[in-house]
Amino acid sequence: MRIISGKYKGRRISPPKGLPVRPTTDMSKEALFNVLNNYFNFSDLKILDLFAGTGNISFEFASRGSDNITAVDADFGCIKFIKQIAQEFDFNIASIKSDVFKFLEKNNTSYDIIFADPPYGLDQATFEKIVTTVFEKELLQEDGMMVIEHSKYTKMEHLINFSFQKSYGGSFFSFFELNSDGGEEVGDDFESDEG
């Protein structure tokens, strides 16, 4: 995987083999950050990266100037790798080994951007629980945005504060905002860049 933009643009990062991950593709990551770039100045943000895996998304935020990033994953190998790269690149990433739902239940900090990339194989109810927990615990700041990466088989449009959705190849990104209309205009905002 490589860093798309920012201070370390073009740098390749090679995670060790055997990590239980499915990293966001470079194409999808670039498209995602093109969207976020229209909403945020990355240097001022507090970021939460859930199911962080290799740290792919955290590293991209850090390269673009974010210096308050929390990466959460249950796998020791993933957290060890994120710590290693953060130290090597001097990124300010707090990497936490924890079950994501246990972390959310205990956490009282709010964030500008919450990104979650759960395993695609998790069931619909588990994906929905991520969204409901974040909003019930008010973990997203008022002008913030939550992004969930998922497959076409997971449906997010009906959930609270759903704003819009984009697809790139086989990956879908659902965006949630507190100031959205709760998803009344679902369908009008769907965009696909597939193919």
TrEMBL record:
It comes from the Bacteria. PANTHER family: METHYLTRANSFERASE. It comes from Flavobacterium arsenatis. PROSITE patterns: N6_MTASE (PS00092). Keywords: Methyltransferase, Transferase. InterPro entries: DNA_methylase_N6_adenine_CS (IPR002052), RNA_MeTrfase_RsmD (IPR004398), SAM-dependent_MTases_sf (IPR029063). Residues 1-20 are annotated as: Disordered. NCBIfam families: 16S rRNA (guanine(966)-N(2))-methyltransferase RsmD (TIGR00095). This is 16S rRNA (Guanine(966)-N(2))-methyltransferase RsmD.
